[in-house]
Amino acid sequence: MDKVLIGQALERVREVNPLVHNITNVVVTNFTANGLLSFGASPVMAYAEEEVAEMASIAGALVLNIGTLNSDVVESMIIAGKAANKNGVSVIFDPVGAGATAYRTETAQRIINEVNIAVIRGNAAEIANVAGEQGQIKGVDAGDMQGDFAELAAATAKKFKTVVVITGKEDIVSNGDATFVVSNGHPILTKVTGTGCLLTSVIGAFAAVEKDAVLASVAALISYGVAAEIAAQKTAELGPGSFQIEFLNQLSHVTIENLEQYGSFRKL
Ligand code: ATP
Ligand code: TZP
Ligand code: MG
Ligand code: MG
């Protein structure tokens, strides 16, 4: 993997303008739609069990996010996930708050068991809990969990035969064999709700145009992290509100040249 391939993936997202079907949470719905639009993808939110199979089948990617789950929405996720699998549509999963309640942990594991997932993206605690380990979580936010996150990502990827992305100060991407670390991003991202959820949907936008889920994930993390760095610099004296708006601007502005200059990743 190199920056040329990463830049080409970004270019393809902008050319194709992929349809990303999101079944996501009520907190982040508007931010996710605006972030995807700004970045160059085409978002749709559709939840009714009467229509999700049809929508998922025509999408470029399906994003499942259990942030404000309930039993109806979980059934819709399973129906949509199976339809996506049948039609070769990549499914990206964000196990928001796994470990905070038994219902979240069990639902996350059920979705992974019943749907073929291309990428699971969460904070370290969510991924640990999904994998059946203990991870300290405070609602939907990662506690100060310590440990070898690269090892956790690789083991979880192997266990579920998928690609696992663990985000935080540094981001890890692993398919169980190859593991990459991405160092872009900015701490102010943790002061705006939904920045993890939007990232998961941006991974969906890349997965719609790039079947190598490791490359799609690394390209998404770098593009997203670099856009955040530029936005943070432009709003340095302000605060999370101004950052949030400037971040949406920079998601549409971020270029291949920016990725070349500021992109920071390494293979372990
Ligand atoms: P949490 O709820 O624990 O904040 P999340 O689902 O919101 O998790 P994050 O881990 O915050 O997701 O990741 C969202 C984005 O923020 C990613 O691009 C990640 O790289 C970035 N990020 C998170 N923490 C930091 C940090 N300390 N420094 C730089 N970037 C960060
Ligand atoms: N509560 C349920 S979902 C949600 C909150 C606050 C949003 C979480 O978003 P993120 O991207 O994990 O910070
Ligand atoms: Mg967050
Ligand atoms: Mg999250």
UniProtKB/TrEMBL annotation:
Substrate binds at residues 45, 194. Catalyzes the phosphorylation of the hydroxyl group of 4-methyl-5-beta-hydroxyethylthiazole (THZ). Its cofactor is Mg(2+). Belongs to the Thz kinase family. The keyword Transcription does not apply. ATP binds at residues 121, 167. One of its GO terms (molecular function) is ATP binding. Pathway: Cofactor biosynthesis; thiamine diphosphate biosynthesis; 4-methyl-5-(2-phosphoethyl)-thiazole from 5-(2-hydroxyethyl)-4-methylthiazole: step 1/1. This is Hydroxyethylthiazole kinase.
